[in-house]
Amino acid sequence: MKQELVFEAPRRALPPRHFADLDEDGRAEAVAELGLPKFRAKQLANQYYGRLIADPREMTDLPAAVREQVAEALFPTLLTPLRQIQCDAGETRKTLWRAGDGTTFESVLMRYPDRATVCISSQAGCGMACPFCATGQGGLTRNLSTAEIVEQVRSAAATMRDEFDGRLSNIVFMGMGEPLANYNRVLAAVRRIIEAPPNGFGISARSVTVSTVGLAPAIRRLAEENLGVTLALSLHTPDDELRDTLVPVNNRWAVDEALEAARHYADVTGRRVSIEYALIRDINDQPWRADLLGKKLHSVFGSLVHVNLIPLNPTPGSKWDASPKPVEREFVRRVRAKGVSCTVRDTRGQEIAAACGQLAAEG
Q1: Is 133 marked within a binding site?
Q2: 122 annotated as a binding-site residue
Q3: Can 342 be counted among the known catalytic residues?
Q4: Are 97 and 150 in contact (CB under 8 A)?
Q5: Band of residue 349 on the pLDDT scale cut at 50, 70, 90
Q6: Catalytic residue among 119, 151, 342, 356
Q7: 213 in Cβ contact with 171 (< 8 Å)
Q8: Is 356 a catalytic residue?
Q9: Predicted TM-score of the model (pTM)
Q10: For residue 45, what is the domain's CATH number?
Q11: Do the annotations mark residue 178 as ligand-binding?
């Protein structure tokens, strides 16, 4: 049965307002509504974004008499960790979150020798219906709020500091959902992530990656925000005939249109675009597709592009599998031969269903 694309999330009650939903002006207004002096807004922001504290009861510079009031009004509990599982000798940790309305979604924290990356969700489920992706096959439940997105980042940053005496360095919007289908909330979350304390976590825009299956108008819109984050386009094949099946949004915005929108992003921001390509045995791994991919990308981007080959991660009941290593190596060689940078992504978390395309938020 063919699944329909879902661009509009089902209508559900929004989570209660949270401090992380608010920009600087909104925070000042919210504090004033509580009858508190405006400087308390900056104080709360320093605690939340700087010290990574989300419970006003632990904010010792806040008068004890108002902590409960502030907690109830601005810091409702949005996310509860239902389950955490680890692999890669504890270097990869997947968290299953439950929101206040019972919605579940996942994020994955990955530690490397030189960095720590959290892969976060922007939606509960996904409406893009890509058949090789467990998330896409599960359908879309709802958009996440700005604060629900930001809380995934704060939690990961606090974990890195408290458990590993380290720092969260990279954010990738490659968890559940199509980020650009939840544009306004994702954009607000990105701003909270990259702005310096007390307005955000102060993570470099260059260390933030926003992934998309190719919503061309939204890619162009993101370019005009001029945030300088990395754009990752999930292409998966260079030809429309196959992409219509692998990435159904291609029926609306075809390969060339998606690539031109990504080129516009590169032109405006000066940032190299990342092309994500899940390599699937006997489906999109043919030598001629590698040649066509390299040729198209070099023609459109010149040097402002990099291909991330992703060995397909198995999902329950899937008929597809990863390409053999010799095929993978030949694919890389052919893309590079066309003058395009190409590497194979280090696959993390397969055994705990935490790798690309595996997130399904099963409770």
Answers
A1: yes
A2: no
A3: no
A4: no
A5: very low
A6: 356
A7: no
A8: yes
A9: 0.93
A10: 1.10.150.530
A11: yes
